[in-house]
Amino acid sequence: MVQKMHRVKHKVQSLHLSNCCAMTYAMSEQITEFRRWRTGMDFTQAQAADALGVSLSSVKNWDAGVDRGTGLPSYPPLGTRTLMSVIYNQMEVEPWPDRVAVKRKRGATTP
């Protein structure tokens, strides 16, 4: 009985790994939205990393649509996608001030 359960468990693990590899291969063959944006902007991977303030490794993962280390799907987080939209639409944005002065009334306590 134990041997039979072990064989079933091994089959399930093998099936999971083969599906994961197939999915990774299929995802790497398609052009991702990120790559479409990057090539549409005529950015190299290094230029895209610099413009977005991220690592070259992240850009390579997003280009492929797969995290090269884990094999899991990889795509830019929301903040980066927002910045991509700003760059694409050539919008002017004001940077956050380094420091914002907060005036408190006398006697007020901080929570």
Number of helices: 5
Low-confidence stretches: 5-28
Helix content: 55-70%
Topology as a string of helices (H) and strands (E): HHHHH
Strand content: under 5%
Q: Let me know the average pLDDT.
A: 76
Instruction: Identify the CATH class.
Output: Mainly Alpha
Strands, total number: 0
Task: Note the gap between the termini.
Answer: 62 Å
CATH architecture: Orthogonal Bundle
Question: What multimeric state do the chains show?
Answer: single chain
Give the number of domains. 1
Characterize the biggest β-sheet.
Answer: none
Class by SSE composition = mainly alpha
Radius of gyration: 23 Å
What is the global morphology? elongated
Would you give the CATH topology? 434 Repressor (Amino-terminal Domain)
